[in-house]
Amino acid sequence: MEYREEADTLGTVRVPATALWGAQTERSRHNFTTGPLMPLPVIRALLQIKLAAATANRDLGEIQEEKAQLIIRAATDLLALPDDELQRDFPLHVYQTGSGTQTNMNVNEVIAHQTIKYDPTSGVLPNDDVNHGQSSNDTFPTAMAITARVAVRELEGAVQHLIDELAVKEAAYENVVKIGRTHLQDATPLTFGQEVSGWVSMLEHDWDFLKSLDDSLLELPIGGTAVGTGLNAVPGFATAVAAQLSKVYDQPFTAKSNKFFGLAAHSGINVVHGGLKTLASDLLKIANDVRFLASGPRAGYNELNIPANEPGSSIMPGKVNPTQAEALTMAATRVMGNDVTITVAASQGNFEMNVYKPVIIETFLESADLLTGTVSGFADKLIHGMTVNADRMAELVATSLMTVTALSPYIGYHASAEIAQAAEREGTTLREAAVKSGQVTAAQFDQWVNPLAMTNRDRSMD
Length: 462
Known about the structure:
Blueprint: E1 3-8, E2 11-16, H1 23-31, H2 40-59, H3 65-79, H4 83-87, H5 101-118, H6 126-130, H7 136-172, E3 177-182, E4 185-191, H8 192-213, H9 237-249, H10 259-264, H11 267-293, E5 304-305, H12 323-346, E6 349-350, E7 353-354, H13 357-383, E8 387-388, H14 390-399, H15 408-411, H16 413-426, H17 430-437, H18 442-448, H19 451-454
Antiparallel strand pairs: 1-2, 3-4, 5-8, 6-7
């Protein structure tokens, strides 16, 4: 491999000849070699920040028109690259300095070297020009807020899609009666539509929680520079940058925020990820319900039929497994673990700056991406094609002992319990045991024990 020499304040470094990065990136590439690469959404957000900063600095008379145009052109061309091509010049890992300085400098260096392609005499410098009026301490958390906001909005769309798919099932099966279960034991009947309505409401609440929280990601710490005082950033710079970023992302970002808070704390990301954790908890419950109700087909509940998306076993022919539910539950457990990581990392805002920034945003984006993908798969590849086994549901209702609850208002709790116990003990139906008890007639039993009526499906909830 051929190399060129690049220099920084620590000396000279050999850099691969074709690489767009410079000395600081090369040092980091060797000093920090562990873990995943910095997420590309963060890189793209930093490129947008550099583009907006060059525009603002030009308009405010802080850098020359020629240099500004070169920086704008370089950032624009880099942003136009597909992910696989863009990744080539951004080789740094998440586990680096806690401020994200190496990644910020990676972006600065790549833009500066890109300008040389247009004009070998450009004179654009990574620190003095591309990073003008900025610090890693304010650009990186600005990128964090932007990428988190975008990721959450995408997740909200996936959750709404799942709600819509479940609502179809709720309506389709509003009159299909099944046995309810509490404590994993038989309970009174409900319709499958009612059961699904509970899932829908859970997700609607989760969606509302996220919507109520995600505006906390609109505050951008840009303009705070090193410690929040705004040293070396001219008046109007932060507002101009935030305005351009708002147009690019079609989001109402604002630079009107406490910069000391923006550098030292990541409360917004922390609280929003709490919403992701809550969503994950509810998704885990829903997915578990679906896969247990679909268990069988001969030795399980067998109340639901799920799509056969792929062979379920490498040894057992004809097996169908709830793979989409399993993927979703695995993602949910990962998100719960990620919430602990973010909670601890967000607490480490020592003095003027939190130094866990890269792991906070990488973890947040992983959670959002996992949920967006698995929720979409669960909706499209399982819920959409799911049907009920109505005969099996009717069979379980007919043989359940807990429909005896409907007799309690007429003959009392104690007498009703004796009937259920007798039916269980003697292996008879509840109806046979009730008539044999002498407490009710066959006609009374048929009138009072009406599973569909017991669901109160036409009654509005008080």
